[in-house]
């Protein structure tokens, strides 16, 4: 997306104060609490960090982002720009155990990335952008959708991981976003269906890498709402993908009106999910700005942190 406008006022960030506020808020309500790390569970998150590398964040803001990153074992990140200096700083601030892997820049000059705890998680041999042969484009179609699939604007990025004996594949996506015209909605719809088709075919193939059946598609689907009549939602679940129940209760953007971000999985994986949620960090940070410049608060959050909230799931690895 285009960069958000830079706030016109100066504000000195007290990093310790903001991190303390985040931790206190996270622990204040069982519905908000991120589970503690254990040897039997895995905490996976997805977060669109708006225009990372393009908006002029300061180290203080990157440290706040890194604090949230450090609550998880693997984090899929969308909107990392070709200039990934800020991304690298976030990983460094998160701690020495965190490593990263990412794609080349594609549509809107964006990379797709994973940050992971290298003490707990190992990257396996399969690392790839999701490539669909042009000869298969004709198979990506939905009756009533007035669009023709011609590839992704930003190719999804998939990595197979192992945590102990648990092997799994994550695909992170940032689907096409456009206006609500039938043609552009159709384009987004077919991208969603292509992701669903990938998960379905992968689970059924006898050539799936290491026979992995636990596959997840996660990221910014630009899904307006979880509604059985929404064409993007219908495309995403058409081949069997499911979404956590929490997506009907909590919004993933700070304007609190959209369900863009999702973690999708196949039915066989559902029994592994112990808990899930969305963390509304914007309710905890920069209280001074909210108190003195309420009308500027969301603009500050969007520019220096993000307009999206992180979504997460906790998995049983046994």
UniProtKB/TrEMBL annotation:
One of its GO terms (biological process) is DNA catabolic process. SMART domains: DNaseIc. The keyword Nuclease applies. It comes from Panacibacter ginsenosidivorans. Coiled coil: none annotated. GO terms for molecular function: DNA nuclease activity; hydrolase activity. CDD domains: MnuA_DNase1-like. Keywords: Hydrolase, Nuclease. Belongs to the DNase I family. This is Endonuclease/exonuclease/phosphatase domain-containing protein. Signal peptide: none annotated. Residues 45-224 form the Endonuclease/exonuclease/phosphatase domain.
């Amino acid at each position: 997306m285009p960069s958000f406008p830079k706030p016109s006022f100066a504000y000195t960030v007290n990093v310790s104060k903001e991190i303390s506020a985040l931790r206190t808020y996270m622990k204040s309500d069982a519905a908000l609490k991120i589970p503690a790390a254990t040897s039997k569970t895995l905490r996976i998150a997805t977060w669109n960090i708006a225009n990372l590398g393009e908006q002029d964040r300061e180290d203080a803001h990157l440290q706040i982002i890194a604090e949230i990153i450090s609550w998880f074992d693997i984090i899929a990140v969308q909107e990392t720009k070709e200039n990934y200096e800020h991304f690298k700083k976030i990983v460094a601030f998160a701690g020495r155990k965190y490593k990263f892997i990412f794609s080349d820049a594609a549509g809107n000059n964006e990379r797709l990335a994973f940050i992971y705890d290298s003490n707990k998680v190992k990257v396996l041999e399969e690392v790839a952008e999701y490539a669909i042969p042009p000869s298969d484009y004709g198979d990506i179609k939905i009756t009533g959708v007035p669009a023709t699939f011609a590839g992704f604007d930003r190719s999804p990025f998939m990595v197979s991981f192992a945590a102990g004996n648990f092997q799994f594949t994550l695909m992170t996506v940032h689907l096409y976003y456009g206006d609500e015209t039938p043609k552009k909605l159709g384009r987004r719809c077919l991208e969603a269906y292509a992701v669903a088709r990938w998960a379905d075919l992968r689970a059924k193939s006898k050539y799936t890498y290491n026979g992995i059946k636990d596959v997840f598609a996660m990221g910014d689907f630009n899904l307006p709402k979880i509604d059985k009549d929404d064409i993007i939602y219908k495309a995403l679940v058409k081949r069997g993908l499911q979404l956590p129940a929490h997506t009907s209760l909590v919004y993933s953007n700070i304007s609190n009106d959209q369900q863009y971000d999702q973690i999708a999985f196949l039915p066989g994986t559902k029994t592994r999910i112990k808990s899930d949620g969305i963390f509304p960090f914007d309710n905890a940070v920069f209280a001074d700005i909210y108190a003195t410049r309420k009308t500027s608060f969301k603009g500050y959050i969007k520019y220096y942190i993000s307009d999206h909230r992180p979504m997460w799931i906790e998995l049983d690895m046994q």
